[in-house]
Structure formats: structure tokens, C-alpha cells
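Internal ticket - ligand job 557, 1-O-alpha-D-glucopyranosyl-D-fructose:
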Amino acid sequence: MEKQWWHNKVAYQIYPKSFYDHNGDGIGDIPGIIEKLDHLAYLGVDILWISPVYQSPLADQGYDISDYYAIDPRFGTMEDMDRLIAEAKKRQIYILMDLVINHCSDEHVWFQKAMADPEGEYGNFFYLADQKDGRPCNWRSYFGGSVWEPLPGTDKQYLHMFHKKQPDLNWEEPRVRQEIYKMINWWLEKGVAGFRLDAIINIKKALPMKDYPADRPDGLADPGVMLAHAEGIGAFLKEMKEETFQKYHAFTVGEVFNEKPEELAAFIGEDGYFSSMFDFRETAIGSSPKGWYDNRPVTGEGYKAACFESQERSADIGFYSNIIENHDEPRGVSRYLPKDQVCEASKKMLAGSYFMLRGIPFIYQGQEIGMENTDIPSIDQVDDISSRAEYEAALQAGLSEEKAMEAVRDYSRDNARTPMQWNGERHGGFTKGTPWIKAAPSYRLINVEEQRGRKDSVLEFYRSLIALRKDPKYEDSLIYGACIPYLREQKGLMAYLRKGEIHTLLVMGNYQGAPQKVELSGTYEKVLINNMDRFDEEEDGKICLMGWQYVILEMRS
Ligand code: TEU
Ligand code: CA
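stdout (C-alpha cells):
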């Protein structure tokens, strides 16, 4: 495999609105990110993915862009952005912008012009249809309801896969693609190192549009069904790569759901459309097509199986980007650990388990201190638009309000969007004003200030994981080595070997509260990481792992 600059990097996602508020208006901002760059350098991360800060009405928290060439004043100015890129560079940190190009905002000038004159120059930038012919298809939008919405002041309607304030761009129209490539290159010229590609699989629709069998009481069909019928996205992605990323050696990570298994090499192989794409197999565990209310909780065995399937699938192909959470998901520790067992030891075990898998590890803000899901008392205190749709779906299916709220509490995107917990002061030290969204009450106990320098904290544990991954000595195994499941059948054990040309590391996590004995794969040289201060060797080549213990051993070859 040809080496790339990003192979040995660790990435970190910032959700700017909730990261750090510099000017006290309650909204996190770019100057706030700059102020906290030293925290990120201390942690040791190399790549920052910044969720959208472009000009936006914030109908979907910035994933609805009204000007790709401008920074929203709530987040700062273009000078701030330039300063962020420069300050990051001083610390050898690379910046990734969030590229939201499946759709824009209904306040974008293209849409405004299409609305003013649907038959004119910009009409074909969107998917428009005559109202008189009825709804062209019964697809459900991701946020609930039909994808079709009347185009105000006209006899047309337009398509939106997400919120109605997020009209889909028509990628079949070459002028749309040219406008997008121009914009991408403009950002690359500015010095960003690459992009995270939002919802990118949606840019290719199954055409001609038609109805699919309804799968919920609303009579609509899941958008995933349409995607399964869409053919030919590759031509768009290849063209985009050649016109933009490739010329700049940019790092790109696709938010790709619903890809067809045989397409993985085309997406992230040596010559793939993207450098990497997120592995969402773990987030899909237990998820029901009916909605959040019908999801089943994750077990350790389920988690392990999902990780290994992804590892096996990508092994000879390329690098997945590995996560336990992001701004669309509940907190990883609240999702992948049993509710009554969430503690510092188990958080570290989960961290270590995904972090050493083959691929690029991404950390979501607050994950490095073990932030947990927040309290959500009632539906009117929810900001997240997808939570509202899921709440409705639960009620429609006959659940009580209390049961519907339970689902929202477990899966709401607000869980990840509460302010970053910097210290134990008011609002977790996120703002001097009133935060746009309430801080999780846990900030008094879980915060950066308390953990920084405390040897056995989650934060310091993440630092040690990052340092080990970046140690050039182990590059042959932790970056380029194979990932081989170890004692896969042993229940409650998540273990694998990272086998390189020179080094072999044995990674073991006891994914349960009870201790268990584990046979080692051979003799070991040394213990590289241990989340506990004991290491119990038995006489017969076995070790006894305490509940939630996690260790990495360097094996003797
Ligand atoms: O998410 C894409 C996506 O597929 C969503 O269905 C996501 O799984 C859902 O929001 C979870 O509830 C991306 C962004 O990450 C998300 O924040 C945006 O809302 C969405 O695109 C639209 O831009
Ligand atoms: Ca602010």
C-alpha cells in the first residue's frame, strides 16, 4: 500500500456551536476554537473536522448553507477562519471543512432564483416538478414527512431528502457540479487539508422517480430503499475527485451510509473516490426501520461482531474512519456500555477497543473526557429536528408519551450537542452568557479541568492511546498491520492482534463487569497500556482481566 500523509493521523470532530463561546453570546464560535487549540494539541490530535460554520439560517444547525463562501456571523468572520487555519498549522494540526453538497439552504441565492423563475437559469439546479401532476414519488425525508414541498409562489414543488429548508441540488445538471468543484477548490486554495463529505450517498437519485412499498403508517418509503435502487454515483464522485481533491492531496472522509458491499473498493480503495469513509456498522446495531422507539440496546458481543465485520470487509481494501459517536448520535459511552456500568474503567475499555482497530480514529468533542448523554425532561426542551420526527413516529405507532420520550432520551442528537464541559463552573465553562442549549448536569463531575493531569482520568487515558498510535516504532503494526480477531468466540472479551512486519500487539478489553481469564497468544515483551494498576498473571500462560480491564501487550515474536 502506498503511504499517505494521513494514514498515521488521529482526527477530532468539533461541533462549533457547542465547543467554546469566545464572545459570551451563548454560541460557540471560531475564535473559541482558536482559544482551545492548545487543549487539542495537548490531547495530541492531528486533524480537526469542523462541522459547518458557513453562512446559514441554522435550520439544521448549519447543514443548510446559504453561502458556501461566507462564514456565518454567529461563528465569526472569514478572517477568523484564516486565523484558525494558520494557528492550527503552527501546531501541525490540519483542518477539514464539512462539505454539505447534497443540498443547500432554501435561502441560498440559487434557490431564491429558482423560486423567482422556475423555468429560468436556476430551475434545473434543483429537482422541481409540476404540482398538478401530484407527488412524483412517495419517498420519506430523513426528518419525517414527504420529500416533496410546494415551491412558494409557483405551481411547482421541490425535493428535499432532509428538512424542507434543505432543497436537494440536482447533480445531474453539469452547472451544479461545476459550481461545487469551483467552491471546493477555493477552500483548498485557502489551505484546508480536506473535507468530511456530508450525506454524500444521496447525490445520486434512483431515476426516473417512482413509488416504493410504504413501510410506515405514513404511507411513505424509507429513503434507503430509493438509494438501493440508485445506480451510477461513481461517475459523479470520480469526476469530483479528479477536479478537486486529487490535485491537492486532500484528505477526504465520506459520510457514507447504504453503500453496496461491492462498492467499498471504489469508495476507499487505493484509487478510491475518498481517502476514507466512516464505519457506521456499530451505530446501526439494533436499529429498527420503524424508528428509534423500536431499537434494541447494544451488547458487548454485538459491538464486537460489528467491529470485526467492518475490519474484515475493509482489510484488503482501505482505511475506514472509526468512531463511537458524532454530532448525530448519542454519546458512545451511553450507547455501547450497559447503563448501570458506565464508569471511568468501562469508558477507557471502550475507547481502547475501537481506537486500535485498523483505520483512522476520530474522537468527537467531549468524548475524550467521557461525556455522557444528557437529561431531556420533555419534548418541548428538544432542539434536534430529527428527535421531533422520531417522537411523532413513536406516538403514531401507539406508544405513550413517556415511552416515546424514552426513545428520544436514548438517541436524540441533542445528547452530543450539549456544551463541551471545560470546567465545573456555570454551564461547564462553555460560555459567560446563556448557552443556546442547556449544559448536561454532569459537567460538575466530568470536565477537562478536573481530568487534565489526573493520571487515571479518561482524558489522560486518551492521551496515552493517541501517543501510542503515533509512536513511529509501532507504525508497522498499529497503522499498517493486519487486525486479527483473537479468541473471538470468548464471551465478553473484545480482543485482537495488530500484526505488523516487526511488531505484534495484543489488544484486549474485558467487555463486562465480571473478571475473566484469558489465554495469551504467546509470551509478551511488555505491557504498553493498562487501564488499571494491576496485571494478574496466572501460572498457566493466562492472565486474569478485572471487570472492564483493558490492556495492550507487545508480544515477543
Ligand atoms: O447526516 C446524514 C444522515 O444520513 C442523517 O440521516 C443522520 O443519520 C441523522 O441526522 C441522524 O438523526 C448528515 C449530518 O451529519 C446531519 O447532521 C445533517 O442533519 C444531515 O446530514 C443533513 O445535512
Ligand atoms: Ca459566540
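Auto-summary: The pocket of calcium ion (ligand 2) is lined by residues 21-23, 25, 27, 29 (CB under 6 Å). The radius of gyration is 23 Å.
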